Amino acid sequence: MDRRITRMAKAQPMISSRMIKDSLELPVSTVTVRRRLCEANLLTRIPRKVPLLKKRHVQKKRLQFAKEHINWPKEKWRNILWTDESKVVLFGSKDLPHNTHHLTVLFSSFSAAYSFSRHLY
Q1: What digits encode the pLDDT tens for the residues 38-61?
Q2: So which residues are the signal peptide here (predicted)?
Q3: In a domain, 44, yes or no
Q4: What one-character DSSP code corresponds to residue 56?
Q5: How many structural domains are present in the chain?
Q6: What is the pTM of this model?
Q7: What percentage of the chain reaches a pLDDT higher than 70?
């Protein structure tokens, strides 16, 4: 039972203890599942909040970038990937997962709080 719980938590780091219990159909409480995860050093963490960027922050950074790269030759500019600022979701849906069991996972985003997406400029 312990290995199955640990394996599932490692395979799906955003899964909750209740979801682990239900999907494995375990005859134990969610507290027991959390205890087993804790014993395996897979502790629950909530993604940290990051400040939302305001329009003036983005404009300031773009102006700074433009001033720093004004003298670049055409060859360097050809190596830049230009996009239409589309949102790219890297890990599943854009909804907020509230649990993670990996201590090494660090959630940060500059587009919106608790977002797992990146904007390409």
Answers
A1: 888 887 777 677 777 788 888 898
A2: none
A3: no
A4: H
A5: 1
A6: 0.41
A7: 69
